[in-house]
Every structure is written in C-alpha cells, then in structure tokens.
Specification:
There is one protein chain. This protein is mainly alpha-helical. The chain folds into two domains: 106 residues, no CATH class; 90 residues, no CATH class. It has ten helices and four strands; from the N terminus they run H-H-E-H-H-E-E-E-H-H-H-H-H-H. Strand 3 and strand 4 form a beta hairpin. Helix 1 packs parallel to helix 4.
Length: 231
Amino acid sequence: MAALLTLVTEIVTGLGMLGFRDLDRALDARPAAIVNVTDVEYDRLAAARAAGSHRDAFEVSWRNGVAFARAAEGLRGRPPWWIEWKGNHRPPRYEQIPADLRIDHVYLVSCKYGSNILTNSSPANLFDLRLADRRQQRLDWFTEVAPDAYQHFYVACRDWINANLAAAVSLPRRVGDLTAAGSASGIEPATGQPSARWAARSRRSTTISGSSSPIRRAIASNRAVSWSSVW
C-alpha cells in the first residue's frame, strides 16, 4: 500500500489537471479519468483532507497539476482524456523515467516533492550498466570495488550486533562468507535470534537518516566517517 504522502503528491497532481474548480470538488467527484485509483485511495485522501493532514502537500500538488494543465509546454488548457496512476504497480523491467503519472499516453510525470532522489538504482546498475537495464547481479559490487572498506564496515556491524543484540548469534569473520540463510525478517526461526542475513542488509542498501547522524555530519563537514562512532 502506498504511503499517504505518496497518494497526495501523485494523485492530487493528476486531479489538478482535470479542470475542476477546486481540489475538494475533484476529490468528491472521484473522476474516472484517473485510472488505477480506487475508492480505497480516494477514501484515504478524503480522510486526510478532512483531518488537515499534509495540508501543504495537498495545495502544492494541486497547483502543480493546474499549472501543467495550463502550460503551453503541457496540456495547453485541454483536459486530458486519460491519466494513468502508476503508483500501485511495479514495472517488470527497468524504466528510464520513474514516472508516477502517464498523461494521454504521451506525457510522463514524476512527482518528487521534497526529494532529491531521481532514481533508486543499485551501484551495479548505476555504474556498470549505466542505467541501461536491471538484471540479476551475481557479483557483490561492494566486494569488487572496495573490499577493504566493505570488510571494515561489516566488522563494525558484527561487533555492534554481538555486543548489543544477541551473544548467541554466530557471524562469520569475513563479509564474503555470509550466506542467504535466515528469514526475510532477519530472525532465525529455530532460535528467535537475529540472522546473518539481517546483518548483511547493508549489502543491498544503506539509509542515512537524522540530522544528528555521525554519517550525515561527516558528509556535511567533508570528513572521513568513523564507523566506531556510528555504532
């Protein structure tokens, strides 16, 4: 299920293109011109609007949709016949443009409000394939490119897990010795303890959050990151 803010920024942008007098009328009408949007999504939007949630996002998204409808480079004042919301499905292959709305089979619109992310690609797809396609990678990109730094990062993760989560967890000394054993939730069914796979999730993606994060502070000050201070 899409996050509420995603529904607001994407669907309301599309509603703004349809020529309604205001946002509330558009939400009440639930126009069939926007396909793939069901009563479930409209109910969530209506409830959020009534509660005053994401008020700024509602207004900005609506104004952007109206601006696109009126723009000479856009719809030129012509109401679109067909708007496809793409937020409820994943494409089978890599798409060059991460479009959230497709207008009249011509315009591809990506709604990125308050985000600097244009594409969510793995390092191998970005640097090796140059975004050409998304394939199953057999090689570990981090091991190939920066094996020493990767091992250092893994050791910091392993030491923190052993010291703070579960002493019974047995993790290999080398990051390359990790296996896919363990459940997707990161808990071994037999022991109820965190699995090696949980510790290895950083192999696929790393999230830096919070203005007080040591990683974020190091990036902001252009300093090397001390992983010992992170964990």
